[in-house]
């Protein structure tokens, strides 16, 4: 190669009824950016969701943290969702700003776009159209969760030249060679999570928190979850390298908030997470740790609870889904005794209700609202804050067929219809039901 290939990585807009930045960053895309840069490519990054864009009015210095509302602009509601009495918006930076950013980046050799929720694909399509308007002949490669679960739909609906399913490390190298002739020989085993370079977090505009993935995959195969479809094998990183990564970012810019993106952080904790917690507790970095992804309650022991508290855990979310333990059939992650025992361990370790939340699924196929209310009461009785998670049907999961049978929509016709914000498995969208659950939580 006579000059470095230029790869532009883009995190797309969100089109939805509601969206909120809750420690959200495109970590998979930033891992690919780090990999490409480590192999000699010039990498630039544009985040359409950037809450800290220089043209965005920042009135509150405290807003520069890991959580906060996105800029939103009302847009036309999709025809298929006209029955939903909610306002539809584009979340993220103004398109004019992104067009200027694209021009300023200079023409790339290839563009990588990521995707998350399948029902956000209109934002992906708008993003790719924006790229085409500035660089009409540059190849665009799409990856991420939506691309993995709906590859055929993504190829039709987004305008991408190529769609990557699953892990993108080798696929990105292949695409670069196919479209540009640039040939990269991997330095390490791309299938080894411990051999991959660190994500290029420095490409972001500021670093208010460090997103960390200490493992990928999940040993469970819950009826409602796509984790095992996206990451069929559980792999764990070396604990020492995880802590070294956190330390490097803390040293670089003083960042204190660390957010774990794992789907199974506490599985085999004594050989993995407990080691990380102990090392962080003794590091002198004074960190604040967060787990927006649910922790498996069964893996919380008295020792692990104490270690999490000593390490500085501030936001702790549990995957409970329902406290109807007798009839539990959609997963087998936790029983009644395990749940109340884990809650006691957490309280004894020093966690209070303000730190602990338990996700409860609502809007499931054929679910009676009284079941959700009973779960709210059960979680509150354990000294934990209930957090309602509205169900989104996911193609390929065990619950998909039941969701299709219960839904008022033809879910298979369009991923838009799986949006949890529209309560797709209820007879109709209901503000009253949402308010009913909220009032129950606050009582």
From TrEMBL:
SMART domains: Elp3. Pfam families: B12-binding, Radical_SAM. This is Radical SAM superfamily enzyme YgiQ (UPF0313 family). SUPFAM superfamilies: FMN-linked oxidoreductases, Radical SAM enzymes. InterPro entries: BchE-like, Cobalamin-bd, Elp3/MiaA/NifB-like_rSAM, rSAM, rSAM_horseshoe, rSAM_sf. PANTHER family: ANAEROBIC MAGNESIUM-PROTOPORPHYRIN IX MONOMETHYL ESTER CYCLASE-RELATED (PTHR43409), PUTATIVE-RELATED (PTHR43409:SF15). Residues 204-433 form the Radical SAM core domain.
């Amino acid at each position: 190669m006579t000059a470095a290939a230029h790869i532009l990585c883009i995190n797309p807009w969100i089109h939805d009824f509601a969206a909120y930045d809750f420690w959200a960053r495109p970590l998979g895309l930033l891992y690919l950016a780090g990999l490409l840069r480590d192999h000699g490519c010039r990498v630039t990054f544009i985040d359409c969701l950037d809450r800290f864009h220089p043209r965005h009015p920042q009135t509150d210095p405290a807003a520069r943290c890991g959580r906060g509302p996105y800029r939103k602009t009302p847009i036309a509601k999709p025809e298929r969702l006209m029955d939903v009495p909610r306002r539809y918006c584009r979340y993220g930076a103004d398109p004019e700003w992104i067009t200027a950013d694209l021009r300023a980046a200079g023409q790339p050799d290839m563009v990588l776009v990521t995707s998350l929720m399948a029902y956000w694909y209109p934002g992906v399509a708008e993003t790719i159209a924006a790229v085409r308007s500035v660089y009409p002949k540059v190849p665009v490669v799409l990856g991420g969760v939506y691309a993995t679960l709906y590859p055929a739909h993504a190829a039709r609906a987004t305008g991408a030249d190529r769609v990557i399913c699953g892990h993108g490390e080798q696929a990105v190298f292949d695409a670069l060679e196919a479209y540009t002739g640039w040939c990269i020989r991997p330095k390490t085993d791309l299938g080894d999570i411990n051999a991959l370079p660190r994500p290029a977090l420095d490409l972001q505009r500021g670093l208010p928190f460090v997103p960390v993935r200490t493992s990928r995959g999940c040993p469970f195969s819950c009826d409602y979850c796509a984790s095992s479809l996206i990451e069929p094998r559980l792999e764990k990183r070396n604990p020492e390298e995880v802590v070294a990564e956190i330390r490097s970012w803390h040293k670089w810019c003083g960042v204190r908030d660390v957010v774990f993106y794992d789907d199974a952080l506490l599985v085999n904790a004594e050989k993995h997470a407990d080691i990380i917690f102990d090392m962080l507790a003794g590091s002198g970095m004074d960190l604040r740790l967060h787990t927006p992804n649910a922790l498996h309650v069964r893996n919380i022991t008295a020792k692990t609870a104490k270690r999490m508290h000593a390490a500085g855990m501030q936001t702790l979310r549990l995957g409970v889904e329902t406290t109807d333990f007798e009839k539990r059939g959609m997963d087998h992650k936790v029983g009644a005794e395990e749940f109340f025992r884990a809650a006691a361990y957490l309280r004894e370790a020093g966690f209070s209700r303000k730190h602990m939340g338990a996700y409860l699924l609502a809007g499931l196929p054929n679910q009676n609202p009284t079941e959700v209310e009973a779960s709210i009461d059960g979680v509150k009785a354990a000294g934990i804050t209930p957090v309602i998670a509205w169900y989104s049907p996911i193609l390929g999961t065990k619950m998909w067929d039941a969701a299709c049978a219960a839904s008022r929509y033809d879910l298979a016709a369009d991923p838009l219809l799986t949006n949890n914000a529209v309560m797709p498995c209820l007879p109709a969208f209901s503000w009253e039901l949402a308010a009913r659950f909220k009032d129950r939580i606050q009582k």
